[in-house]
Each structure stands twice: as structure tokens, then as C-alpha cells.
Specification:
The structure holds 2 protein chains of 2 kinds. By secondary structure, chain A is of the alpha/beta class. Helices cover 33% and strands 33% of the residues of chain A. Chain A contains 8 helices and 15 strands. In chain A, the strands form 4 sheets. Chain A has a 5-stranded parallel beta sheet with strand order 2-1-3-4-5, with helices on both faces. Chain A is elongated and about 70 Å long. By secondary structure, chain B is α+β, with helices and mostly antiparallel strands. Chain B has 2 domains: 5-143, no CATH class; 167-342, Heat Shock Protein 90. Chain B is 64% helix and 14% strand. Chain B has helices at 9-32, 37-64, 72-97, 102-162, 167-183, 185-202, 213-231, 255-269, 309-320, and strands at residues 210-212, 235-241, 249-251, 274-283, 286-294, 326-331, 334-342. The chains are: A alpha/beta, B alpha+beta. At the A-B interface, helix 1 and strand 7 of A face helix 5, helix 7 and helix 8 of B.
Chain lengths: 248, 344
Amino acid sequence: MSSKVIIIDDEPLARSIVIEYIQNFPDLVVSQVCSNGFEGIKAIQQYKPDLIILDIQMPKINGFEMLELIENPPAVIFATAFDEYAIKAFDAHAIDYLLKPFNQDRFEKAIKKWREQKNNSAGDKQTKQLLDDVSLTAPQNERIVIKDGSKIKIIPIQDVHYLEAADDFVKVFTKEGYFLKNKTMSHFEQVLDPSQFVRSHRSYIVNLQQITRIDPYEKDNHVAVLRSGAKVPVSRTGYPKLKSILGL
Amino acid sequence: MANSPLSVVRFRIIFSICWLIILADHIFLLKWFGLSWNNAIIDSTVNIALLILACLLVIMMLHYYLPQREKYFHLVTWCILITIIVILLTKLILKNIFADDSDYLAFFSKSIWVRSSMDLLMLGCFVLVTVIWYNWQDQSEQEGRKQDAEKLAKEAELFKLRQQLQPHFLFNSLNSINALIGSRPQEARKMVQQLSDFLRGTIKKEEHQWVTLKEELQYLELYLDIEKVRFGHRLSTKVECDESLNEMRLPALLLQPVMENAIKFGLYDTVDEIEIGLKAMKEENNLVITVTNPFDPETSAPKGTGFGLQSVQRRLYLLFARNDLLNTEVKENIFTTTIKIPQS
């Protein structure tokens, strides 16, 4: 039985060399080549490939951000020229990656490894851990990439008003309403700049730039009133944190 | 080791003239006090000769041991000691010469305190001048060393800034060549040539710190051709430069990082095809270069100079000591970088 492969890379020649190498494997069929993450997501949904060969640095959303937006990502072989942090992350999670330029032998080795791992399900978990790890790195912290229906939304971090926990998701509130992101509150608390975002409540993280005032609310509690008029609960433990950072 | 003041011809002349004046003064003074010309000349010559010897001794001493600021009282002690020795020697010599002249000997005994204080005063002045000389020498030497060190550091930094090369660019170019070798070997060869010429340019040493605009644009062309092979139809560039500006000068490799920044910014911020523009102009006595790239204002907020422009800013600062030569501007979806290069 043949396996479906999708190649996602923004450089045409980088795609063509992979196509060339794949031709030596009669059982691998290239379903689609994509030049960016948006095309990649569409193609993955359409073809449900067994394997993707994925570049990291790409227009708009990078390879990691693209994977984050896919519910059940297929097996991945990363191909990158140079990315110190990513390479560290790959090594830490025993995920195979190709450093450009790579030759036929190296490519075959990666395919062989993928075939061996195909039969155990450890691969999925590794990819997930990798994404968690990578999402802590700097370029990933300047924006939040969200899938909104069929559209992909890139929200610069300073446009976020506040975050609210919602079961397994986090609601990211902006001036256009909220978007759901499948991450945890503690993930965001870890990732966001603590001088700009404060966890004011177990279920809320607020952007300090947006706060206009803090009002008392019932006994012992407070609410932060934002420029948009939204009210964000402030807990008993959250209030002193907020006060000290705002310098009140 | 600092130079001795005696190694400077001008100092030697001044030194000699001063002592001649002092000697003459000494003779006239003694004559005025009633000594005969003969006696006055012998007395003065012996006294001043010894004093000159003492001064030379002081120069030698200070040459090897210059006291720290807090140990200047050592100098005072030296001066007193040397003055005593000079006076004792003078007395010994003159007493031998004028052994029979009781008038003179009486005069000498009477004048010994005046002589001592005058000798001490002169020696003191001389030591002061010598100390100032050595300190000044020391300081200018230190200053020179500091300047040398600063110059070296500046040159090293400039060199590093010039040859800053993105590993991404190099590896991705090699990857493109790798792909071309199989399908279009002629183009692969051409790209190897371009990449080599480009790399050779980045490792040139400082003898080519300044180049003409024409040379810089030719070099930039190499870079742009490589990038166009990498990104295919997505990237196009438009370079506008009037021929009259060809001979204007700018620091070598200044434009490439600006262009690289614009390309990265443009290509990674949109999925469409993009055009990068470069325009050279002359404004007053400046060469002004603007580079434009499209970006998506919705998703990225360009912060200040950001991205790869800090190194350009730093270079301009090191070369011109000005921070206002690089500016960026956002208009709708176009990001503009402007560089001013003063023409000397």
C-alpha cells in the first residue's frame, strides 16, 4: 500500500529536491506540494497524508504554528536550514529532522526511521511535546495563531485584551470578540511577558495596558475595568499582584 | 619607559639657557655684594656646576622612579638632602681654592644660609618641572594606548558588523544549488559563482571600507540574484539609481543587510508575491537611500527599527557618531527604511 506525502516549504527549489528524492520510493506518493502554512493546513485536511515534510521558517505562520492548528497532525519530518532552538527541541524529543542541504542518503535514513516509528504511537506524543516546548520560544510569544472556522487569525500579543479559561480551551479576547485557542491558562501564564500580562484570577489573565481602573466588587473582591468596558474579575490573591505591578 | 626630558633638543637648549642666566645672575649678585670679578666668577661657577650635576642626577632618578602622588614628600626630602650635599661640596672646593683669602671665607660663611635656600629653591623648581614632564609623558602614553585599544575595538566591531552573514541565507542557498545540480546544472554553476563572489565580498578587509554606489549596487545585485533563485517568482526587485550618483561613496556592505531585512520582512509577512524597491537620491550633501517592502499591518506591528536594522544603525553610529542616519516609516502596508550617508 502506498503512503501519501505532503511537502510544505516556501522555497521552490527546496520543494523540488524533496520531490526528486521521494521518486526513489515507489510506495511514496506526493499528494500535494505547498508553499506556506495556510496551503499546508488545507492540503492536510483534504488529503489526510501519512507524512509531511515541513519547513519551519515560512511566510505568515511558521511550521510549528501550522502544526498547532491541526487537530491530529500526521507524522512530520522537519527540514530546516538553521534554527538553533528548534534543533535543540528536536534533539530533546528524539524527532528526526533534516538539515538543509541534505543528500539522498540522509533523506532515506529519515524515511526509514519514520517507517519504523509508524507502527508505534509514540510519535504523536513526541510531536505534541515538541510543540509545547517550542511555543515557549521568543518568536512564538509575539503573537497567537488561531483557527477561526476556516480562517486563520494571527493576533499580535499587544492586541489581546484578556484571556479567560474555558474548559480545555482559552478564550482570547480582542476588540473583535473572542477566539478559542487549545492551550491551558498555565501555558499562557508561562509564555506571556509578566510585566504586561497578569493572572488576576484563576480563570483570567489580563493585559495591563488595557486596564483603566480597578473597582471593588462584592466583599473582598475587585474587578478590573478595561478600555473596552469589559470587566475582568480580580481575586483576593490577584489584587495585590496587580497592585504591585501597576505600582499602586 | 617615558622619554627623559634631556632627549628632547628643545628642552636641552632651554635647560642650558636657564643655567647660563642663573650663572650670570649669580656672578652679578656676588659682585654686587662686594666680591671681585674673579672671585665672583669662580664661586658662581663651582656652585652652579654642582647644582647642574645635582639636577642631572634628579632627572636620572626620576626617570627610573617616579613617586606616586601621595609620596611627593619623598621629593622634598631628596631636594633637601641634595642641596645639603651641593652646599657641602661647594664649601669644600671653595675653601681649598681660597684657602688664603680670609675675607672671602668670612663672606662664604655669612652667605651659606642664603645660598642653601636659593639652591634649594632652584632645585625644587627644577624637580617640579621634571615631575610634570614625566607625568605628562605617562599620561599621553596612556592616552595613546587607550586610543589604540579603542580604535582596534572599533575596527573589529565594524568588521564583524560588515561580515555578519545569516546562516539561514547560506544554508538555504546551498540547498537551492543542491536542487539545481540535478535539474539545471548550468544554473547551479552560475549560482555557485554568485554565492562565491558574494561571500568573498563579505570577508574583504578594511582597505575597502568605502566604495562607490556603483560598486555597492553591483555587489547587491549578486545577493538579489541569489535570493531570486531561492524564492522564485515570489520575489521581484526594483532598483532606481540615476547614473549621476554612481560615484557617490558609502561604507561597503551597508545596503545588503538593509535589503536582506526588507526581503525577510516582506516575504515572511505575506504569502503573496512581493516587490522590494531601492531608490538612491542626492539630498544636499547626503546620499539618501530608501528601501521599501510590503508588510501586513494587521498581523505585525513593526517596532522601531527592529529586525536586522540594529547592526546597520550601529555601523552608522561607529562611522559617523550619529544616530539619526537610519529611519523607518510605515505607510499603509509599505515599510520604508531610509539611510542617509554624509558625503565628505
